[in-house]
Amino acid sequence: MPINNSHLYGLDEQHLVDYLGHQLEANTAVAFASLQQAALADEIDLQICSGFRNFDRQMLIWNAKATGKRAVLDNNSKPLNIEKLTSKELIDAILIWSAIPGLSRHHWGTDIDVFDGNMINKQNLQLVSEEYALGGPCFKLSQWLDGNAQKYGFYRPFQLGLSGVSPEAWHLSYFPIAEAYLRDFDINAVSDILKSSTVKLREPILAQIDKLTAEYVYRVAPIPKS
User: How far is it, in rounded angstroms, from Cα 119 to Cα 7?
Assistant: First the structure.
């Protein structure tokens, strides 16, 4: 059956434009350019580490973790021994930091991971909480985003106690578009996509797809009020 809104699941790139080597949703790119210039005026080099990721790219990340080819980290960013985990436990562990293919906000082009290029380069960046906390290279950026991101339509969807995904100080979402995309997300469509995919742990994922979608797609921090 044809898939509606395939751009929501990383299968369509027609809504994207190139912005300095990263693919972003068109409105998101315009807004981010303004946010970036504002940061520069305050001597912060706001750079994108990761923007749009298609379904296949997300599947590579997921499958590498599910098969032990890539480290699976706990809430404290420490490696786990996945050999001792059941399928359900392994899914839960991977989901601490990585989305199931088809369920990632990075498919939308509205969500980006950012860092301060004045303080750390992309090669050394690990995207762990310590880098954005007091004493970390991106602490100044994180504090600046607290006071300025919303002015340009951005916010952090993954916040402590407000989201299924662990807090990610580096993850920004352009909420004027992302909010509409979230409303259009269709669990039946993504289930059909997963059924015909080669995603590892596919069957145990599908067995609890309602719960996983509720926790890791729909449960995010509320859109900030102006």
Answer: 34
b/e sequence 121-140, b meaning 16+ C-beta within 10 Å: eeeebebbbebbeeebbbbb
pTM for this predicted structure: 0.93
Rounded to whole angstroms, how far apart are CA atoms 107 and 110? 8
- Report pLDDT digits (tens) over 131-158: 999 999 999 999 999 999 999 999 999 9
pLDDT band for 42, please (50, 70, 90 cuts): very high
Domain 6-218: give its CATH architecture.
2-Layer Sandwich (3.30)
Cα 108 from Cα 52, distance rounded (Å): 7
**What residue type is 147 in one-letter code?**
G
CA 31 to CA 35: how far, in whole Å? 6
Domain ranges of the chain: 6-218
